[in-house]
Write a structure and sequence with these properties.
Layout lengths: L1 H18 L9 H12 L4 H16 L6 H18 L3 H17 L4 H25 L1
Helix pairs in contact: 1-2, 1-3, 2-3, 2-5, 2-6, 3-4, 4-5, 5-6
């Protein structure tokens, strides 16, 4: 159920980014939602990574925009959780690491900060939802 809502909202965000990219500074709606889901529940990688690949194909005409960065989360997070315990600091560092792909793709610093500002509350709300349902 959450996957459906996130994917629909991501498509809406993709449309917003494409429609108003030249007229105003805005966050990368899709990346912030997909990154928040991946940080909140690491087993969601099976549908988040293909959606990120679609996002990259639409924005950058290749899959090398954000996808390689987000692939690092399901690979690193189990090892970090095993060594350090599941916690907020390593996920926050991974969020900053993955969102740096926006700066490498020539997004403005303000758009990067807006993306982080959207990702954090969505991430915490989804993490609370997953914790309650577990």
């Amino acid at each position: 159920m959450i996957a459906t809502w996130v994917l629909l909202l991501s498509l809406g965000g993709l449309a917003l980014n494409m429609a108003f990219s030249q007229s105003m500074v805005q966050p990368d709606w899709t990346l912030s939602l997909l990154l928040a889901v991946l940080l909140a529940h690491r087993s969601s990688w099976a549908w988040v990574l293909p959606a990120t690949g679609f996002h990259d194909l639409v924005f950058y005409w290749n899959i090398w925009g954000s996808l390689p960065w987000l692939i690092a989360i399901p690979l690193l997070l189990p090892q970090l959780d095993e060594r350090l315990g599941p916690g907020l600091p390593q996920r926050f560092v991974l969020m900053l690491f993955c969102s740096l792909s926006l700066l490498l793709q020539d997004w403005s610093v303000l758009a990067w900060l807006l993306t982080l500002a959207l990702c954090i509350p969505v991430w915490f709300n989804l993490a609370n939802h997953y914790a309650r349902s577990a």
